[in-house]
Write a structure and sequence with these properties.
The protein is α/β, with parallel strands linked by helices. It contains four helices and six strands. The chain is 21% helix and 25% strand. Strand 3 and strand 4 form a beta hairpin. The termini are far apart.
Length: 126
Amino acid sequence: MKELKRYTGRGSSLRIDLKEWQDIGELPEFRGNPFLPIRSIPPEVRQFIDISDISPSGVRIKAKNYVGILPLSEEIILTVNPKAPIEDFLYILYKAQGRKVSVEELKKWCMLEEDMRENIPIFFIF
């Protein structure tokens, strides 16, 4: 299994850590060039992030209000962390009496229109 490292330079496997609603340009390692070296974002991931700019260098992204791990390409993994401190986030999850979600449920949820998603308590949308 390939080990992913925090951003070490273009052309190598990398993991990018963003908080909800954070733009990649806010990260110190992307301040000079806030573009990921990819041409497109997979369609199943696009609903979870905003593409804020496109250039010959790649795409600039901004996390939305989803928390999780998103594969952007074979070489790039995006981890979106909660904006709230993790202790507060875990307390919210505990109080919500969360439940396990199957992959099939997740696929069905992803296919719904955005206004219908709010009626199905699988994910927390902040």
